[in-house]
Design brief:
There is one protein chain. The protein is mainly alpha-helical. The chain has a domain of 99 residues. Helices cover 64% and strands 3% of the residues. The chain is built from ten helices and two strands. Helix 6 crosses helix 8.
Length: 182
């Protein structure tokens, strides 16, 4: 039963992200989003630790002290800021966030909206993704420009709603960015 519920949860999340990506013109990303969640490394952990109201990776992390599923996932999905963590270009920088291509920051934003909708269900509001982000942002390692764009979109969603934010992304944020980011 947990396997079926987990399968339904990831399918619902994937559909929400796909719809969001399609709204802003990121068709390929919408179709390919989170395919690694169906791999045995991620799917089996998701079934074991499924709760329905939060990521199973959090429960695995509490149980084992780390999440093998998360380490697998973030290393294969460019819409996660953790994918873009590397040593800085000079020896004095150490570990830092690299600038994310705009299309992946947008997918990260849409992913956060979809995750909030998926887990909060009827309690979801357009402020939910921002509140969740604010709760953990002090722990994020992310390039300043990527952070600025993500925060701009989260604030816009909270203040202006989804329709206006997605239109802004499609016609302003992604306009002329696709060629630069390829």
């Amino acid at each position: 039963m947990k396997a079926w519920k987990h399968f339904c949860t990831i399918n619902h999340h994937k559909m929400l992200v796909m719809k969001g990506c399609f709204k802003v013109g990121l068709y390929r990303q919408g179709l390919l989003h989170d395919l690694s969640k169906y791999s045995p490394t991620e799917f089996l952990v998701g079934c074991k630790y499924f709760q329905g109201n939060m990521s199973p990776n959090n429960a695995e992390r509490e149980d084992k002290g780390y999440s093998a599923a998360w380490l697998h996932h973030k290393g294969r999905n460019k819409h996660h800021m953790e994918y873009w963590i590397d040593y800085g270009p000079d020896k004095c920088t150490g570990i830092t966030g690299m600038k994310m291509p705009t299309k992946y920051v947008v997918e990260m934003f849409i992913d956060r909206v979809a995750a909030s909708r998926n887990y909060q269900r009827e309690k979801y509001t357009d402020e939910s993704p921002l509140a969740y982000y604010e709760h953990g942002k002090q722990y994020h390692i992310i390039h300043e420009e990527s952070r600025e764009l993500l925060e701009c979109l989260l604030h816009m969603l909270a203040e202006c709603g989804e329709e206006e934010t997605y239109a802004y992304i499609r016609y302003e944020v992604l306009k002329n960015k696709r060629k630069k980011d390829k």
